[in-house]
Amino acid sequence: MLALLLRDLRLATRAGGGFGLSLAFFLIVTVLVPFGVGPEGGTLSRIAPGILWVGALLACLLSLDRIFALDREDGSLDLLATAPIPLEGVVAVKALAHWLTTGLPLTLAAPVLGVLLHLPGPGFAWLTLSLAAGTPALSIIGTFGAALTVGLKRGGLLLSLLVLPLYIPTLIFGAEAARRGGEGLATFTPLLMQGGITLGALAILPFAAAAAIRVNLR
Amino acid sequence: MLSTAAGTASQDAMSIWEYANPKKFMQTSAWALPWVTGLAVVTLVTGLVWGFFFTPDDYRQGATVKIIYIHVPSAMMAINAWAMMLVTSMIWLVRRHHVSVLAAKAAAPIGVTMTLIALFTGAIWGQPMWGTWWAWDPRLTSFLILFLFYLGYIALWEAVEDPDTAADLTSVLCLVGSVFALLSRYAVLFWNQGLHQGASLSLDAEEHVADTYAWPLWVSMAGFVLLFVTLVLIRTRTEIRARRLRALEARERMA
Amino acid sequence: MVDLGKYAGTVLGAYGVTILLILGLVWLSLRKGAEMRRRLEAQEKRMGRNG
Q1: pTM, entire model
Q2: Residues C4-48: pLDDT tens digits?
Q3: How does pLDDT run across B198-254, given as a tens digit for each residue?
Q4: Fewest C-beta atoms under 10 Å: which of A131, A186, B157, B201?
Q5: Does residue B110 lie within any of the structural domains?
Q6: Is the sign of the CA dihedral C6, C10, C11, C16 positive or negative?
Q7: Domain that residue B123 falls in
Q8: Cβ within 8 Å, pair B165-A144
Q9: What interface predicted TM-score (ipTM) does this complex get?
Q10: What residue intervals traverse the membrane (chain C) (predicted)?
Q11: Do chains B and C touch (3 or more CB pairs under 8 A)?
């Protein structure tokens, strides 16, 4: 399993692997928002937590179809399905690799981009914390979506349609925690809920995703 | 005694699953369809005509109260259609009855239509009552999210070519989607309270509906349920025929 | 005709949209059903003749 993780990380980070694309996308979205809503600092700082959360979510979405597509093309997905490690484990490792190459960098980049949007002072810590708690859920939910669409030739658009509604609870609690943190309110409840969603998704979705892959490989 | 009781019980258990046989389903539904259709038309027309022509105006909401006879039943069916899809999807995953999953596929477009009706009538009603077409009220938002889930489910059916693969994948999506739809419902409640404290835009009409309004409302709800059943039967029959056609075409190519 | 007062447009609009959507759904369901029935019958007839 460790070997699989290292392999996935190597594939993602080598040239053309897509690592960094999500980050660049996140940066561009953040830069575009002030052009859309105007440069006024008060407005920006009020919407900053939400914009950064939505931006991170969309950036995360970009790299989802890569999770299984390459393995599917060169046939290694069939090998993984028949490998001695359970397919659920493979899915979990894939999600972890996706988080390490997408979710984690996005989380670390968010405070930097927060400066551009006049994120309120106390908000930085809460934004980072809520992203750290929420992006694993985004990765595993996305892995499930990728598993559903792995057999399709042009599944990218469908993948977004399937995954985005599933992202709603994570987004709501994450952005709410960041927003409340920025305004100096209590953030315990949304963070707790979000942690619950992440843990619940991690517990259930590997099984659903593995089932979907088995159906697709049949 | 015991053995007879057990015998009847197992017979009863058998009888439900008999309808899962496509042929049996086609026979039974062909017999039931005219009755259900007639009943649906009668209750629907009765409920709506009663509600539209023979109920007084509300002292606060005026004539707009008449929208309740389509708004509440369609909203109810929007949720019930998804619940029905969840149950039939699970039956498919566990017992592999084709009729079951085809019924789920048949129900999805009806659910979408009901969700749209609930949203549209809500918007039209909200305009004079709240002064806006749309408010991010928890209930409205939840229905919008439900609409998105229906879209994803239907899109997945359309995208996958092999019917059994599509059936499996959509069923898994329906299961996972149900969990997340429920989570979204609670998340939205939390979120809205967080945004506008003390906002009281509630569509909960049932709580303060007087008898004059309640009776035609019950009839309309029954009418919507029967309409749903009628349409599910018609559409499931179409899906079963489509499946059989596919099988015949495949056999012809092989020969 | 029932008097809807100043909300006539609202109520009639809501009922109109609903009736349109439901009729559309019913029409689509029936049309698709009839088409599938026709195609299946044609196919069964052809295969019955051939084999």
Answers
A1: 0.88
A2: 777 888 888 889 999 999 999 999 999 999 999 999 889 888 887
A3: 333 444 444 455 667 778 889 999 999 999 999 999 999 999 999 888 888 888 888
A4: A186
A5: yes
A6: positive
A7: 27-195+212-254
A8: no
A9: 0.89
A10: 12-30
A11: yes
